[in-house]
Amino acid sequence: MRRARRRLHLPSRRRYRRRARAGEREAVMAGIEGRVALVTGGGRGIGRAIALALARAGADVAVAARSVPELEAVSAEVAALGRRTLFLPLDVSDRAQLAAAPAAVAAGLGPVDVLVNNAGIHASAPLQRMDDETWDALLAVDLTAPVLLTRAFLPSMYDRGYGRVINVSSVAGRIGLKYGCAYSSAKHGLIGFTRSLALEAARKGVTVNAICPSWTETRMLDEAVEDIARATGRTEAEARAAILRANPLGRAALPEEVAEAAVFLALNGAVTGQAIHVDGGEVMA
Length: 285
Known about the structure:
- It is built from 9 helices and 7 strands.
- It has helices spanning 13-29, 45-56, 68-80, 95-108, 132-160, 181-201, 219-232, 236-244, 255-267; strands spanning 36-40, 60-65, 85-89, 114-117, 163-168, 206-213, 275-278.
- It starts with 12 loop residues before the first helix and ends in a 7-residue tail after the last strand.
- Helix content is 50%, strand content 13%.
- It is globular and about 65 Å long.
- A 7-stranded parallel beta sheet has the order 3-2-1-4-5-6-7, sandwiched between helices.
């Protein structure tokens, strides 16, 4: 008489897939409540606006920059929103400081889930008048620093199967910029880095995107207006109008409007490898 075989009731592949999808859905629906974010260049302007917007969305936020008084002020604003916070004095041109950043943030808040590479500098000059030091400094801050900082944080994101990398590029990364060879080169490179890493990280729970603002109501715009007025003899109002003439909306973006794009990218797990314009329609592509 043949002995009946016992069947092992193992979960089917379909059931495993359903469970995986359910886990992904729960992670998406949970948003960024309690997630840890790091914003470089977080002491003022766009960085400050992003830090506060992420805090309002439920994230605990570390802000990094060179100016301690500015960092203290923004950190206090984040705390006033009821979120945990710390500030990290950071010179992004210093590779040793970049390498130490993951441990510094983890010690105070935990591992970083959302990395916003916002720190940047700007310089304008005809190529023949641009010295090597200016070129090297601009690429070190605007391109190399985001690459190195992202590389430092990726292992932890991969281990946990979750991460958001948001690089603040510029419309200068999509078009040419007269007298801006170094700046435009760095911002083009940052978008290329964003798209390439997005492909590497796509199956590891990490999205990588860029934001491309045009002129924004920050100190950089104020300085550009002053420079043009001084060089041309125009009034500051005339210089400002000249800068914004090509903008279909006829105005500069607010830092808070750029921050809204950052929150969207932090929340959405289905968007990766994109360069999102916040530019009033200046570049339609």
